[in-house]
Structures are given as structure tokens and as C-alpha cells.
Amino acid sequence: EAGVAQSPRYKIIEKRQSVAFWCNPISGHATLYWYQQILGQGPKLLIQFQNNGVVDDSQLPKDRFSAERLKGVDSTLKIQPAKLEDSAVYLCASSLGDRAGQPQHFGDGTRLSIL
Amino acid sequence: GQQLNQSPQSMFIQEGEDVSMNCTSSSIFNTWLWYKQDPGEGPVLLIALYKAGELTSNGRLTAQFGITRKDSFLNISASIPSDVGIYFCAGRLSSNTGKLIFGQGTTLQVKP
Predict the structure, then answer these.
(1) d(Cα B27, Cα B2) in Å, to the nearest integer?
(2) How does the average pLDDT of chain A come out, rounded?
(3) Which residue on chain A is closest to B1 by alpha carbon?
(4) Which candidate in A39, A45, A90, A92 is best for mutational testing of the B interface (most B CBs within 10 A)?
(5) Residue B88 contacts A, CB cutoff 8 Å
(6) Other CB atoms within 10 A of residue B32 CB
(7) pLDDT, tens digit, for every residue of B2-49?
(8) Å from A109 to nearest chain B CA?
(9) Are A114 and A11 in contact (CB under 8 A)?
(10) Any alpha helices (H) in chain A, and if so which ranges?
(11) pLDDT at residue B60 greater than cutoff 70
(12) Environment class of residue B100 by beta-carbon count within 10 Å: exposed (0-12), middle (13-18) or buried (19+)?
């Protein structure tokens, strides 16, 4: 089965610019997650979708970050305006659901560098 | 926020040696997961644990869900060069739906 697809793989922008990331989850996976992974740390959940509804966005900096999953499949994560501390790898993951026994599968991420 | 303490932070071992790493938390988890991440790639699930006391193996890897539900360990036996990478523990809180809390990672290097 095809894995979680993310694009672009790399992005370099200047601070205060905007950027968007795209994720295509594994077919049939209802739950989609966006994580931020700063160098040397484990991933941190930003937002969780169940189909096209938001389940948890408690750690999403909503003044600059936004995410949507309009048709319950693909998702986009946007940052506007970017700050230096946003430099990180942004990982998308998907799972059949959010129950125990339904593990999350990760994409390879988008590496964002802010100049 | 909730935190997982993962140790050791890094390990440099000889090929063929056994490896052990662990995670502890002040919170109770209902699921423990162990992932491996190679450079430039996303984390890949190695082992999932769903019950306190559960001991599960996947080839040369063995992991256990602590009885207190606040800790877990991962053992790798007879390490080989391709075991090199960063290993993360992750836990699901009992009161949460799907959200994973990750440890800081253990970087493993294997000398041939």
C-alpha cells in the first residue's frame, strides 16, 4: 500500500514570508495528524483531524498556523508569517482511526528552513 | 505539558552487542509505541504495546509496557550496522484520543 505522501520535501523562505505544506494520507485513513519536529527533539502534535473535523489543535499557534482538510482526504498546513523558530521538519501522519491498535504511519516530512 | 524522559540520549556500541533504552513518565499511558527514524525520513513503527506488563518482540527487538503504565523499555539484541538511527518512544494518555507524546529520542551508532 502507498504510504503517506508529503510535499515539498524541502522549503527555504525568509522570515515573515508564508509557506504551505501538503499531505496525502494512506487511502482509507480517517485520522490525519500534523507534527512539528525541531532538530534534536521528538515530534510534537500540532493538529489532529478526524475526517474533515478538527479533534485537537491545542498546540497549534493559531496566530500564524492554519490547517485544513476540506474533503476529509488531503490536508494543507500553512504558516503566515513565518518566524525563525518555525525552522523544523513538519511531519504528516495518518491512521485508520484514533483508537488503540490503530497506529499512526508517518510521511517523510517537509524540512523548513527560515532565513 | 506532559513529558516523556527517554534515556540514554545517545549510544555508541560495537556490532553484535545488545542495546537497551527506556522511557519514563509522570503520567499514566494506555499505549506505548517505539519508532525508529532514519535521516531524512519519517518515524517508522517498530513495536506497539497496549497492556500493562505486555512483552512483545519483533525480530531482534523486544519491548515491554511497564506494570505501573508509566514506563517502557526497548531492547535490541545482537546489533547490526543497519540498526543505526534515532529511536523514539511515544505514549498515548488514557484520557486522550490519538494524541502521541514523544520522548526526546535515543541516537544509536553501531561500529562494525
Answers:
(1) 7
(2) 94
(3) A59
(4) A45
(5) yes
(6) 30
(7) 678 999 999 999 999 999 999 999 988 989 999 999 999 999 999 999
(8) 6
(9) no
(10) none
(11) yes
(12) buried
Dist. CA B11–CA B20, nearest whole Å: 10
Decide if B45 contacts B107 (C-beta within 8 A): no
Give the distance from residue A16's alpha carbon to the nearest chain B alpha carbon, in angstroms. Answer: 26
Cα(B75)–Cα(B64) distance, integer angstroms: 9
Max intra-chain CA distance, chain B: 44
Query: Which pLDDT score is estimated for A106?
Result: 96
Distance CA B13, CA B107 (A): 11
Q: Which of B90, B99, B102 sits opposite A48 (nearest CB)?
A: B99
Q: Tell the burial category of B70 from Cβ atoms under 10 Å away from its Cβ (0-12, 13-18, 19+).
A: middle
> What percent of chain A stands above pLDDT 90?
88
pLDDT of residue A101: 77
